[in-house]
Amino acid sequence: MTNLSHATRDGTHQGLIVRDVSKRFGPTRALDRIDLDIRPGEVVALLGENGAGKSTLANIIAGTFGSDTGHMTWQGRPYEPKSPGEAITHGIGLIHQEMRLLPDLPVAENVFLGRLLTRGGRVDRAEMNRRAREQLRRLGLDISPTRLAGSLRVAEQQQVEIAKALTLDAKLLILDEPTAALGGEETDHLFERIDALRREGVSFIYVSHRLEEIARICDRVVVMRDGQRVATHATAQVPVGQLVEEMVGRSVERIFPGTGVPEEREVLRVAGLSGAAFRDVSFGVRAGEVFGVAGIVGAGRTELVRAIAGVDPVTEGTVAVDGTVLRLRGPRDAIEAGVALVPEDRKGQGAVLDLTIADNVVLPSLGRVARRGWLTPRRVGEVAAGAIRTMTVKGRATQPVRTLSGGNQQKVVIAKWLELGPKVIILDEPTRGIDVGARAAIYEVIAGLARSGMAVVVVSSDLDEVLGLSHRVLVLSRGRQQGILPAGEATNSTVMRLATA
């Protein structure tokens, strides 16, 4: 429960107090007279759609930039950090949703980046390794602290970011989508650490689009919309439907669209496939079928689909499309056979952020888009305009992808592969870090692909998402295939029973 022992008689407290804070970026009003209280030892959920102002408020608190109006106090004193480093010295840290690890440095050096431990004037790598390993194990991750960060999977990188926060000795941590890439077991480990820290008086601002988690870990809820605080709840036991309606300003139910009935024709056949993180996996996907892949983090889901797409090497087994066995020497072989992969890390692997929507859309299909060997701006614009209409992307063809919301970035990544006319499309974590309104649009895209006759494979840490979209679900556990369940038999309990076998 919330720790209110630090409150004073006049209603103030020794935590964070934000009053009348506003912020504009040019003509855009990002925040409008925001008030916020975070008391010692409590976890406050900060909810809102993309663009609601959550990140702007978090960055002001964390010292990334200042506000235009208003003031803050922290631990009873005026607080106006000029940089993230200054905020950290005051005991306030922000862990971003997007990973900011340096891929060519070891895990331990990433955890202690900017504050390397020293002994006798020299970097104490042994102590950094020990402390990094300890924090990672508390989160349920057993990896070597000397391993390069760039070799980790997205979920492991997310846990390293969280471990980095836990070593700050901070008194207030802002967690932005901390479980976006985590499965149920990893999320439980994180919540255990949060519970332990708040008993020590550490406070948390918890930003998440996974509304089902809010009641499990948070004490109070603050809802933002269009830069304003629109609701505050003294408890986290608020119906999800009510929170969604407050966030988007209208009633939005999490209803998965109809995906139609698959054809009998099998498009994709995986037989006895083995790789570095999985063994002897076999399944088929029919035209018009959404085939889900479930399992906890570390089960080998991402490694499996990367192997099917020719990204990672196959040690045994075969992949066939329309009855033809593929010789997978790299992604090009899979692409030419009609297999497209939308990766889990859309910003790092799926899109070139500084290029425009148009350039991203035509990037994999330059040969098809060009006419008589010439690629003209007009032709690129025509193709991009068609993709924007089809995928309902909110943006202009000439707009850099970096400026789009997460949901629209994901639509662009999907659109660029659809330009190739694939027979099989694989979507790995298709809604990671995407708000509730945008998720519905992505679900409709996936359902539309299936209804058009495409074979669709969906990998997701959100089990409800897998169950709601899929005709059948393959369950992996520690790299082993545990079963394939038809929609009528695939439930949370049956899938988790197999996933933890």
TrEMBL record:
Sorted UniProt keywords: ATP-binding, Nucleotide-binding, Repeat, Transport
Alphabetized CDD domains for the sequence: ABC_Carb_Monos_I, ABC_Carb_Monos_II
Occurrences of domain ABC transporter (ranges): 16-251, 262-501
An example Gene Ontology molecular-function term: ATP binding
Pfam families given in the database record: ABC_tran
Domain of life the protein comes from: Bacteria
InterPro entries for the chain: AAA+_ATPase, ABC_carbohydrate_import_ATPase, ABC_transporter-like_ATP-bd, ABC_transporter-like_CS, P-loop_NTPase
Name of the protein in question: Sugar ABC transporter ATP-binding protein
Source organism: Streptomyces zingiberis
